[in-house]
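pasting for the record
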Amino acid sequence: MKKNTYWKKNIQYISILLSIWFLVSFGCGILFVEQLNTIQIGGFKLGFWFAQQGSIYTFVAIIFTYIFLMNRLDAKLKKDN
């Protein structure tokens, strides 16, 4: 795998993962908050939970997903060389 292909795949991963984070933090925490507030988890409205905690948990999950994807991509790079 060439360097350009590697970096294109890296940028693709970053774009997808950050888009997911944006949708969760902005979409669930701001745009869809009224609809989500009709659901309660642990006594808190779901829209409030996403605004306060959900985007942070999603970001941490995205970090681990990115690590997994990049390790897999690195292993493929080593295998191809």
